[in-house]
Amino acid sequence: MTATRVCALSELEQDTARRVEVDGVAIAVVLDGNGEVHAIGDVCTHGDISLSDGFVEGETLECWAHGSAFSLRTGQPLNLPAYEPVPVFEVTIEGDDVLIDPSVTKVVN
């Protein structure tokens, strides 16, 4: 699979998540306060809730329903009730295009 254009960089609002779908994979795309674009799985691992409806703070995305926050860098939950991570995807920026390949997840140590 190859990277797919999901949106324009200029369409992203800082500290706001945007839901996209690539090949049936729901992804939350976030432009953080430092100008870095992140892509993580859009479904909270605690409940079947869209994370892109949640709240961005720093390098975290918090589920609006139960308050679990996930690291935008690692996908790891930072508090309960979630205890399983969400996938984190590689993001490529080409000009104003944001590209994501949902078959390529980041390996985070």
UniProtKB/TrEMBL annotation:
SUPFAM superfamilies from the UniProt entry: ISP domain
Signal peptide coordinates: none
The entry's keywords: 2Fe-2S, Iron, Iron-sulfur, Metal-binding
Gene3D superfamilies tied to this protein: Rieske [2Fe-2S] iron-sulphur domain (2.102.10.10)
Family matches, as InterPro entries: Rieske_2Fe-2S (IPR017941), Rieske_2Fe-2S_sf (IPR036922)
Pfam families linked to this entry: Rieske (PF00355)
Record-level Gene Ontology MF annotations: 2 iron, 2 sulfur cluster binding; metal ion binding; monooxygenase activity; oxidoreductase activity, acting on paired donors, with incorporation or reduction of molecular oxygen
Every Rieske domain range: 4-100
Keyword Transferase set for record: no
PANTHER family attached to this UniProt entry: 3-PHENYLPROPIONATE_CINNAMIC ACID DIOXYGENASE FERREDOXIN SUBUNIT, FERREDOXIN-RELATED
Protein name: Non-heme iron oxygenase ferredoxin subunit
Source species taxonomy: Bacteria, Bacillati, Actinomycetota, Actinomycetes, Micrococcales
